[in-house]
Amino acid sequence: MAKGAERAGRSAVRSPSAKRSAKQRRPTGGGSGARIPPGLTPSRVQSRARIRPSRDRVALSREELELQAQAAGEAAQALEVSRQRYADLYDLAPIGYATLDPNGMIREINLAGAALLGKARAALLGRPLRALVAPADRLKLSQHLSRSRLESDAVSTEVWLLLPGGREAAVQLTSRRVIGLDGKARLLTTLIDLSQERQAQQRAQQERSLLEATLRQAADGVMVCDPGGKPVLVNAAARRSMGLDLEGGPIELSEEVWGRAILPDGSPLPQKRWPISLALRGETTVGCEVHMVRGDGHTYDLQVSAAPVRDGWGQIIAAVATFTDITARKSADVIAAAHRRWDKAMLAIGREAVSGNALDAILQSALDAVAAAAETPVGMIRLVEAETRDLVLAAERNLLPAYREVAARIKWGQYVAGQVAATGSLHVLEDVSSQPGLSRLSKLTDPPICSLIGVPLRAQGEVLGTLALGHPRPRRFGAADAMELLPFADMLAGAIRAEQLRAALRREAGARALLLRELNHRVRNNLAALIGLLHLAADSAGGGAADTLNAVAERVGHLANLHHMVDGKGGEPAELRELVATAAQSVLVPLGEDLKVRWCVDGASVKIPATQVIPVALVLTELFTNCMKHAFRGRSTGSVGVSIRRIGADVSVEVSDDGPGPGSGSGGLGLDISKALVRETLHGSFHLVPARDGGALVCVRFPLRPDLQRQGGEA
Fold first, then answer.
1. CATH architecture of 338-507
2. Residue 527 region, left (φ>0) first, then alpha (ψ -120 to 50), else beta?
3. Which one of 3, 152, 595, 644 is at 20 to 30 Å from 115 when CA atoms are compared?
4. DSSP structure string for 206-270
5. How far apart, in whole angstroms, are the C-alpha atoms of residue 601 and residue 584?
6. CATH architecture designation of domain 201-325
7. Average pLDDT, rounded, for the chain
8. CA triple 599-603-607, angle to 5 deg
9. pLDDT at 711
């Protein structure tokens, strides 16, 4: 401060303004012509003239001293303001400042530094910083002090400090050596609290570790690539999908490692169009399905999504891709699709089995269905010829004419089909060209067949034929195909056996129909001859014997009419209403002009089996005949009514007339025959009662056979 005041004084002496003030105070007179005040002698005047300049110089010096003092005060005040400002900057700085001696003793420290160390500033002055450093970092502090004393540049070191309450704080010390006015070295040191930064770094590291652990243990595959396309993270799920070691080394992004990518439509996907490659160029891909085929034969299916990772400035810093292994799902889809195809094939052969089509049509439809289900272009069905045991080609698919000619018939035990028939077991030929003696398909088909599977068509232990399927790809057929083919072959064999049995039944039925027609023809002729003989006998006998013979001839005639009606049905169920009408027309109508009988039928429509037609018709004929003999005697007109009803599983037939009713001489052999037929043949009941409005009412009730109850209900 003294030196500053001295400089201010000198500048005040040299100041032009001060010189001008001094000149203004100088007297303007003083020459020889000056006026002398009264009462002064010249000597006094001269003496006064000599004293006045000295007085003026003293006044000027005093004024200069006052200006110098004022300037010095202003400089001191400015210096104090500056010192206070720098003191405030030092004390109120947001980071800690400390002045250390070369040995690390704290000489000065600001408020932030004291707060960081957790102690009052007065308690820290004169205390070694070493005492506040964690024991593990004291060697680092010593090295820091040594470097700071020797180096001219700033030295930084991170240490842990011991704080009150047992807490610790990470602090960065940055020291620079300076020489003070007293010539002594000091270390100007900053103390920066790294606790929050360390905590943030620790949290970030924990979050990163958690994220990496999550990604590595994720069920889906995850891969992260740097901007250059180098994978920096490939989790275990991705490695597992690729069939690689879970703990293996780094993985390259190449077709040699990952395999060739094939899209669902079968087209290849080059590496530059892979989703992760597109992500590195800024494109996002969602749900791309690819089939991967590695050089070692390993295949797998992935659903891939990929996206770029950008920083705050929008620059791509990485790319991330997720892989969902859909190999199992794809396999399940393939298996499910195969099951659907085989179910469709089974349904097709089931429809053909009951279609009534010819055997050739059934076999061709079945072969087309099984070839479509197995996705094979070539197929054959051979049947065993009963007489020679040769295997005859019965149906084929996509065979060349040359093969059909040479393979139309093969011997039992010859080639694959012959061996399958002889052994009764499935046979798979993985490579036809390696065993040319077992098949000629590799030479006589286009494209050549490389793999072949043959299964026996066996029903009830008997081999009826063989089914063979061929494919151009080697090793096409496996256990799964065998499991699907065997049930199909069994069903096809059942259809073949059923059709063979139906054909045999049709032949037998034709023979029986021919025999039955001949038999019916002879029965009709015999009945006609018997009726003629009875009438001849009646004409010859006369009297009561003639009446009996005519009655017998009449009944035989009714029986002939019924036989004619049943013969037209061919053994099929008969409508009961039609049966009533036929019996009424044969008994009630052709009676001449003396008697006119009206008849009617009402009630349900019921079909009865052929085995019950004759007994029911005979009962109706006897009842109508009994009406004509007893109910309408001596009358010219009459009426007969028939009512048909279903009562559960039984049939009720009621026949009524308008005659005198029972007990008036009705009955006789006709009623006895009717009762016997109903009770013993039809296993029913027979009741004769008076009708409500007069006349007789016969109630007949008998059960239908169980296999015809449905037909009756549907009628």
1. 2-Layer Sandwich (3.30)
2. alpha
3. 152
4. HHHHHHHHHHHH-SSEEEEE-TTS-EEEE-HHHHHHHT--TT-----SSHHHH-EEE-TTS-EE-
5. 10
6. 2-Layer Sandwich (3.30)
7. 80
8. 105
9. 39
Q: Per residue in 614-625, pLDDT tens?
A: 888 888 888 888
pLDDT digits (tens, 9 = 90+) for 191-243: 988 877 877 878 888 887 887 777 777 778 888 999 998 888 888 888 877 77
Determine the residue type at 93: A
pLDDT at 714: 33
94/523 Cα distance (integer angstroms)? 134
Element housing 284 (H / E): none
In the numeric block, the tokens 């920083």 are attached to: 311
As a whole number of angstroms, the distance between CA 108 and CA 89 comes to 14
The reported pTM is 0.43
Structure tokens, 578 = 């039609």
Strand segments, DSSP code E, in 23-135 are 96-100, 106-109
- What are the extents of the domains in the chain? 1-20+70-86, 92-193, 201-325, 338-507, 571-714
Q: pLDDT tens digit string along 459-474?
A: 888 899 999 888 888 8
CA distance 88 to 303: 66
Place of tokens 């005639």: 557
Spatial distance between the Cα atoms of 577 and 199, rounded to a whole number of angstroms: 105
CA distances from 208 to 224, 369, 521, 584 (A): 14, 58, 104, 105
Q: How far apart are CA 171 and CA 382, in angstroms?
A: 93
**Structure-block tokens of residue 649:** 């599983």
Which H or E run includes 645? strand 637-647
